[in-house]
Amino acid sequence: MSIVPWLTVFLLLAGCASSMPHPPTTVLSAPAGTNTEIKAQLERGNALFASRDWAGAEKVYREVVSFESSMAEAHYNLAVSLDYQGKQADAKKHYVAAANLAPGNKVIWDSPIFHEKTGGFGHDVDRPSFQDPSHKGY
Prior knowledge:
mainly alpha
């Protein structure tokens, strides 16, 4: 039996794995002016994230989101922790929520989910929206 077919399969799988999006390796801190208790809770989630306790971080971030649903950083951190657990569908929802809440935040908008050709949203975020009245051609 030849090793060539097995080597070919291995190389194909390795190539596919490297083209998949990778979750960001860091999470965000609370913005200035955030309630002290909520800020402490977010930092607790960040400590769990840093210790690679993705499920524990998810639980804490969900609590923060439930108390402060307009905090983009909490949605983003929750998305990253979900992404690490392989819960991409749920993660995408929170990446989008974070992006909608913080349209100028480069960390959120530069996350791999928005820029990967495979596994991401598969669209060009720089392309004008069909809802943009100044853009003709849709």
